[in-house]
Design a protein that fits this description.
Helices cover about 30% and strands about 25% of the residues. It is α+β, with helices and mostly antiparallel strands. Helix 1 (about 40-45) packs across helix 3 and helix 2 (about 50-65) runs antiparallel to helix 3 (about 135-165). The chain is globular, with a radius of gyration of 16 Å. This is DUF2867 domain-containing protein. InterPro entries: DUF2867.
C-alpha cells in the first residue's frame, strides 16, 4: 500500500445535485497515519458494531415501515469481492468505486441520498448529500440529519483509531 493516495486534481466532487439544490450536505474528514483506499476505509468503519448506528437503523425501520418505506435492516456485514458500479452494498447502490472514491446512493420517491467516501493523500472524508422530493422526505430528514452527523463522526473516530492518525477529525464545509 502506498504511503498516500493522491487525488486527481481535475476530479469532480460527487454530490446528489448541485450544492445549492441540496436539502442536506455534510462533509467530515480525518487525517490518517497511513493510506487506505476508499473501500478499505468503508470496511474498517463497518468492521465493528456501532450501537448508535444500530439503534438509528432500528428506529428508522420501525417508523418508516408505517409509511410504506422499505426497511434498511442495517448495513451488509461483508463486501462482495470485485465490487463495481451497479452492485449493492447493503441498502446502497454502488455508483462509483476506485482507490480514491466510493460513491453510494439510495434513491426513492421521498429522497435521494449520496454518500461519498474520498481519499486525498492521507485525508479520508465522508460527504453526504440529500435531495428531498416531498413532505415525508423533509420530515424524515429532521431526526436523520443530526443523527447522521453523529454517526459519521463516530465512524471517522473508529477509522482513525484502527488506522492511526497524526491529528483529530474535523468538520469541513
Amino acid at each position: 500500500m502506498p504511503t498516500a493516495l493522491p487525488r486527481d486534481a481535475s476530479a469532480r466532487p460527487f454530490l446528489m445535485a448541485p450544492r445549492e439544490e441540496l436539502h442536506f450536505y455534510d462533509r467530515r474528514s480525518v487525517h490518517l497515519a497511513r493510506a487506505v483506499t476508499a473501500l478499505d476505509g468503508w470496511k474498517l468503519m463497518r468492521s465493528q458494531p456501532s450501537v448508535l448506528l444500530d439503534l438509528a437503523m432500528r428506529l428508522r425501520d420501525a417508523i418508516a415501515c408505517r409509511f410504506g418505506v422499505a426497511p434498511i435492516r442495517g448495513f451488509a456485514p461483508r463486501v462482495p469481492a470485485g465490487l463495481r458500479a451497479g452492485d449493492r452494498l447493503g441498502f446502497f447502490t454502488v455508483d462509483h468505486v476506485s482507490d480514491t472514491d466510493l460513491v453510494l446512493t439510495v434513491r426513492d420517491r421521498h429522497l435521494d441520498v449520496m454518500t461519498w467516501l474520498a481519499v486525498d493523500g492521507l485525508a479520508f472524508s465522508v460527504t453526504s448529500s440529500v435531495r428531498v422530493h416531498n413532505l415525508f422526505g423533509r420530515l424524515y430528514m429532521l431526526p436523520v440529519a443530526p443523527a447522521h452527523k453523529l454517526i459519521v463522526a463516530a465512524d471517522l473516530r473508529r477509522l482513525r483509531r484502527l488506522v492511526g492518525s497524526p491529528g483529530k477529525s474535523d468538520r469541513q464545509i
